[in-house]
Amino acid sequence: MGLVACGDSREETGESFTSLTTTSPMTTATTGVDDDDSSTAPPEYFDLPVADLPIEECAGETIPATQKLRGARVVFVADNSPSMYTETEEVEAQLNGFAQSVVDSGIDVRVALFSAAATGYYTTNYVLEGICIDAPLGSGLCPELPDPNAVAQDTNEPEFLHIDQYVNSTNAIPVIIEQQPQWGPFTMGAETVHFVIISDDDSNQPVSYFIDHFIEVEPDRAAIVHAVVPTSNCPEAAQIGQVYIDLAELTGGVVGDLCDQDFVSVFQALANSVVQEAELPCEYEIPSPPDGKPFDPAQVNVEFNDGLGGGFDVGYVESADDCESVDQGWYYDDPAMPTTIIVCPQTCVAIQGVIGSGVSVVLGCATVPAG
Fold first, then answer.
1. Which CATH number fits domain 69-277: 2.60.40, 1.20.1280, 3.40.30, 3.40.50?
2. CA distance 262 to 36
3. What is residue 38's predicted lDDT score, i.e. its pLDDT?
């Protein structure tokens, strides 16, 4: 599906063309992942085969796409209460693997962590062992003393931000809302922010508290909340994390059962969910024509394939200002010396949300203007 035939409205040039296809993830998030699921290799995201089309229909070759899917932004909030020492050790152990799994899926990821970073008192709360993240995600530099609400030494921007924040058994939701000035700028670049709450307890605030206050602090972005909490009254539970479970179900997140203590599977399920929600990019580098042929900016077209046998052609407009006058459109970053194709805002929205979909950039046929 990577190569498509040019329509009758395009001029035959006798030149071959290149089609560049980027597809969205096909991994499916689950709330319970067995060992076989967690070891499944990530799917391929680029459609590389040469389509079997006749030369007169502008058939050519497909080259690998270099664009990553639009960035994933994930904020972990880990309970530091004394009953959570084993679980916070697992967060420390699993976070690098989680981030690498997302990166291996072709997605730019940024991870923020709100949890105590050192041993010592956070006001009246004593932490026996803080969380410190090793390389490559973190810096591996671990603080000797608490520095409440400061940037922890294991921070490794732009990929990883650790705020030395004590999180008690019941206040994960207020921490998220009140710390927006910290995670908000760090997570820019994605329209959806994932929050992972890890606790052996429940929230003092209802679901509505998060919904109402998140809209206040982030009116233009969406949230997906994941909960790694007790789902039954097991020995590991202070109480069932019902508010966190309800919030995850409401926002389409993953629920991992803390009672199982199966953190490998839980973190794989979280990674799967983040990958599935990643968005197609809305900017595409122009691929080089094959065999050293010259690039002609008047022979470029953009097509969207929904992966279900449908899709639409995206017509050309002169500039971003012209996007409002068309249903779907794209334009060059610099019409005089173009290097990047940018799809209009409404087109960027229209191409999201379909697993297996993709955008093809086709060279070698006369550019079709937006209708």
1. 3.40.50
2. 14
3. 43
